[in-house]
């Protein structure tokens, strides 16, 4: 009873004169049996009597809810029901079920914890000396205790609280098992309830199920209880009915589909329970479920290890369902039925996504049956049949494919599909095929055993799961189009049912390695290499070979070796084979692309594996080029350098409201004035801010607000800077631009630094408003003007003046200021001259301060930061900003061509679609090509 720091909870006893005598009788029995004792504990939980049926004596129950609130939970789990039932289905012929008599009361509570179990009744204050019902940690503690008691019998004994199941494969073995179990119980002086024990039976009742050596079924009592159910008429009764029969849903195919009408009216919250209405449709569903749950055959077989599993799945608009079965000598054995109602969000999924989700639900629900066994999946939806052999251009389906990799799925078969299902599959975007590249692993095996290599589409007893890995991608040289490919590549585009997994992409194609690295070919390839042959010839035939040559090379077993040191300071020399140029590429592929040997890791890790094994001239340069040219590494690797691109400050223009920035902030919680957004306009010279609360951020509201609150007060600007939101980038704003004659600059997508002055104020404004608003009123717009004035009247770090001073030529008057001093001017025009001089000084000094601050920021921003420049025609990858999973690429799947340069902004074109987009240089990654393969051109 570990508890958090607390004051002991104490309650007065319940007053119930009808049960006073019954309570006293039970208290006397407990005292006589030594189960309780009188207490002086500060704890006091109320106890009461719960009547039983058939006029049997009532049960004493203690309300430990207050104690449970301060108890630290014990995380020890109880056995999972499905796991326990499947453990009993391993071919056992004899079962025994032992039941402890008042199991909780046979274990004593430590003396220090007894005061926490104290309870009160009208007759007095008592505390338990033995385990009692009610404390939240009692089941976990009892289960752990029973595990310890039966530890010596775990091979044949299963424990679920006070139920002990003993299973054996022969009668004599079972008798021996019973003796061992009885000895373990007797050692702890535990007493059994003889009337509830079953010994050496071939069918045993466990957790509401009847278990035999081959099958599992609901108990007769459970069937009778279902027959006795009355038709529900309220929401509470409906939920009780569904909860009761759902315990046996695995015995009923399409359970959730049949029960869907009742599910629709049962999933109501408390504030919507008045919408509950029981109709004829629900009544028919109720009787249909009762009929299915009480009609033979109502049983499931246990799996047989010698036969593979088959999982047939299907998805409808409202539910997923599946059946797990085995074909045993021509007879079908059903092992499990699964069905689940789809949530409103899941019902909006596309058909392939629903079918993939169904497979995932079934495998998760049947995990204890499927895990570690070979399973064939049967689906009537062809497009998902290949999701385990190749990546799918769908995040949900690809996520399912990754999640089910732990299962030993031999094959996904299509059944009862329409004639055009394959064409439908091929019409969807495809990615690289899986497991079609040799990485050099089979070079260690004789050719005759190559057929014995594991295939992810065939069952294997030694394989538990497969990893979905992508092979190396090859990108054609610039200027090569799909029309330049040879006949073989064009024939590959006519995909049939036999080659439905062929990828037909004109830009990026996944190709098998032209040669597999085989160390057995080293001697032959060295003989074909001119440079190596020349060295071997000099060492073999020269009577006085060059001392440098003989000290650097040696011939061992007919293979030229090179003496090397692993580090410059190392004195230990290694002798490694000289790798011929014809084998360099295959070795690099094996040591980088192979998931086992390379795993697409860095240059240093790759060099640390190659250097002690092989040598060739310019080895590190070749390794560097190979890794840099890896397309997958370019798409997926995370750059830990500073984002490329130097800072490009906007030159200051010493004219207020000549260059302004504009952006929306929000949405916020709707205020009493129905405002949800703030349109923020900032003068980039004075940094004077105007913020207008608005109910919406539509294009017409934006244009009207800009005209009324900015142009009509401060004049038309020369340049307006905004992002590319639809409220700024539209025909109405373009018309306003042409009408008033200003220049509208749209910032680069996903690069808010272009309009950084406005973005920085937005961040400050949100923080200040959140401090001031009354949250229960959502009146943030009441404080908006005050916050903006406080900002405008404060000295800005960049200009060293307040925005108010730079705009009006004087500091603002604040409530804390003393009475103002009055100036006398001979003529009214003298004030204008005075103001003009003041503003001229302010503006000149502010411009100088801005330029100094920009130089300061640029110096530190550009330090150790790359500033790559690209040319028209260069091919680059663009960063992906859409929501993506952790296993998805960071950069585009296909390179794009630069068509326009305005450094640091570039316009790139996607060749297949012709679409053009602007990107900042920090969002581009150059495509690196180490070589051009003539065979692919």
From TrEMBL:
Coiled coil: none annotated. Residues 31-211 form the Reverse transcriptase domain. GO terms for molecular function: endonuclease activity; hydrolase activity; nucleic acid binding; RNA-directed DNA polymerase activity. InterPro entries: DNA/RNA_pol_sf, Integrase_cat-core, Integrase_H2C2, Retrovirus_Pol_polyprotein, Rev_trsase/Diguanyl_cyclase, RNaseH-like_sf, RNaseH_sf, RT_dom. CDD domains: RNase_HI_RT_Ty3, RT_LTR. Residues 491-501 have a biased composition (Polar residues). The keyword Nucleotidyltransferase applies. Residues 1-11 have a biased composition (Pro residues). This is Uncharacterized protein.
